């Protein structure tokens, strides 16, 4: 379905829309900027990558999932696929470091949609940093408890 | 659409098993999405379930109140006749008065229901059905479909024979629809407002809609008690259920026979509907709404003129070339070399001159002379001081001598 048509339906009201303090924000997992705009609203586009934080244990290196939007042409889940699949997205847990994740993002977008690409990468970096801090704190707390 | 999209029918017992691999999508699902039609039809059809109500026609008017007229230092509003009670003499009848009747009291013959043109209603229903097959729209409506194997979800007719709620629940769990049911359960809230005293205590979200075909199906009872789930027969598809609140994209679970019946119900683009007599599905205004693709297509790009680049005539703030070397370089590229040459020339000119080395001997001699002068000054001061001392001593001794002699 064309992104333009879907946008006309969805822009006024959708489940991810949050209007607060004069701001129009979005909780769409495929939206890396947080603001609801036509280009950043990933769930209506054909290809989008969402960088999503997940709750996880301390031992997990990165509590980040990459959620890649699937084309909605044939909306069926591929059970043979390696990554966690759903009708609209395939999820990749960022386990092998931020660099591999950023390569996934770059490959997805190629030379097009630089703005979206940058937004995804930016979010990836920020989440990674926040995660590192969190992990450091948790480990320190665990150490202190042990003592 | 050159290629017809295909859909699989899933086995009721096992969500990984597919009983019919590729069934063509009924033409309804290709109907253009028309939120404007749906919105219009929905707002009107939603009024049709209203029950007539009215205010008691005599409310506030059961007095023999009369205005006291002018000259009594009171407002001219009708006042309650009689005496012996607080009520007498109080204002009555007006909408502004306490205990008065409301302005424009509601009558039972208010126009509660709206009729909508049949064609519009059918177009709306068709669009709503189409929207149930578009994943982003179902997501936008807020359904939790991350575990659902396929949209549109078509299941074999076996579920129509479910009698027990446990069967229904297990079926929903198997097909990832339970997440949506859980959402319904967890977001059940006590309604704000008076309605909670009028029988509408809770606000409950909408979950999946199960659509069946065979009239003898027992699944209505099985799904009845599952919160959020609605069950409806294909022949009686309701816009208020397909697009609740006028919002397209309900999560629908079709049975195989119901799904197959859609072509007969709504017709195709080749044949008009059999059941909706003479109804032809809405045709899109633009067959290819993908603007980005149109713009980037070869056909368009060939004809299009090259993109205009913005010409910058001058910078926003004027820089003085006589003071700003970079600005000067922009005007006269040779200026940089000139400046470098000037610097080099200065360096070259000053190359021969030696640095003045201080002569050590000269330094010593001058120091000695200085010391001499300083010493003589010192002696002079010393001598002066001594002289003063002598005078003092002489003076005092003379005095002493004088004292002594006396």
Automatic annotation (TrEMBL), chain A:
Belongs to the eukaryotic ribosomal protein eL28 family. GO terms for molecular function: structural constituent of ribosome. The lineage of its organism: Eukaryota, Sar, Alveolata, Ciliophora, Intramacronucleata. This is Ribosomal eL28/Mak16 domain-containing protein. It comes from Paramecium pentaurelia. One of its GO terms (biological process) is translation. Keywords: Ribonucleoprotein, Ribosomal protein. One of its GO terms (cellular component) is ribosome. It holds the Pfam family Ribosomal_L28e. It comes from the Eukaryota.
UniProtKB/TrEMBL annotation, chain B:
The keyword Ribosomal protein applies. GO terms for molecular function: structural constituent of ribosome. Pfam families: Ribos_L4_asso_C, Ribosomal_L4. Residues 278-351 form the Large ribosomal subunit protein uL4 C-terminal domain. Keywords: Ribonucleoprotein, Ribosomal protein. GO terms for cellular component: ribonucleoprotein complex; ribosome. This is Large ribosomal subunit protein uL4. It comes from Paramecium pentaurelia.
